[in-house]
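anyone seen this seq b4? input:
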Amino acid sequence: MNKRTAKTNLVCSFCGRAADQVGRLITGSNACICNECVQVCNSILGGEIQQKSTLLKPDELPAPQQIKEKLAEYIIGQEKAKKTVSVAVYNHYKRIQSEPAADDVELEKSNILLIGPTGTGKTLMAQTLAKFLQVPFSIADATTLTEAGYVGEDVENILVHLLQAADYDVARAENGIIYIDELDKIARKEGASPSITRDVSGEGVQQALLKILEGTVANVPPRGGRKHPEQPLVPINTKNILFIAGGVFQGLEKIVMQRIGKKTMGFGAEVAIKKEHNIGQILSQVEPEDLLKFGLIPELVGRLPLVCAFEELDEDALMRILLDPKDALTKQYQKFFQMDGVRLVFEEQALREVVRITQKRGTGARGLRSVMENAMIDIMYQLPSKTDVRECVITKEVIEKKAEPRYVIKRYRAKKTA
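predicted toks r here
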């Protein structure tokens, strides 16, 4: 066998790929390794070396009040939710930093379940927490997950996204935050049971989530996708990863009302009237038994011990969302216009109209952007070509009828002649 033939027959001793399938193959006396496996090994070794330096130090961990104040800069309303989550996150990272106690009191991880109407700030809260604490963060959509071996995404793949967000630093990833969205969509199908039908995207996913929520060492493919023998796997310990799950849980309020109604029935009892309560107030009284009736399995409910309800956003809250947060929509548009040398002004009635349309659609704060974009797109298309505009005023008619805004033209002084 000549040298050229021998070279083409070389394979990586770790992943099994041939020389022509990788960027570069480094050969040794009795083994070979490809460039991609070298990168994975570097990530693992680098994570172990930097483990102590990448963790939050005790003096760097903000107090619950500081966490809540930071959340308030981006999230309007939801005072109870912000306070509850702030305490939970503080206790979580305090638990990670604590040394094993002499009294053998083991501090358990408290994952969080956020429930409430769409567009109330559930995802934004998780994102803001991760950004403020400077820890890796990833979002997973529960509706795309299936049991291992079925068409879809393996549950363990949600750890891949976190590892990628941590730049393949395993130690940082093991102290990150994962937000699992649309958890309510994997509720057990009504009337289904494991012995009768295989619910691979519902109860099957719930079962698969149990281990990583509680804490286990999961071997994940660093580049994502299905596991296969040729792909090197990275071990990730989920014991200190904070899982925040969220969902609308449509219909859960009816289950809660049925339970409350049974307790208030009888002679002399006060009968609760549904119209007197919004969904947020009803959901704040959720008990584990309600979640079980909705379709979550008991083991999953047990691993999400902290349930936090979000309230519906009223007109005043939506107005504040347009104006107050650091990244408020009005401030973003004003920044864009400022780059073109134009001052952008929103009349109050115009913003009220944005809120009215959004409430009619029932999409919460998420719908504010689509209403604003629909009204502003033509203006932002034409404005850069107008060189004489000093100020642009958005009126109610602009939002309601896509009318022309009111422009204030620049005044030019005539040059004096000698």
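The two ends are 95 Å apart (CA to CA). Residues 1-6, 48-54, 191-198, 264-276 have pLDDT under 50 and may be disordered. kinda curious what u guys think
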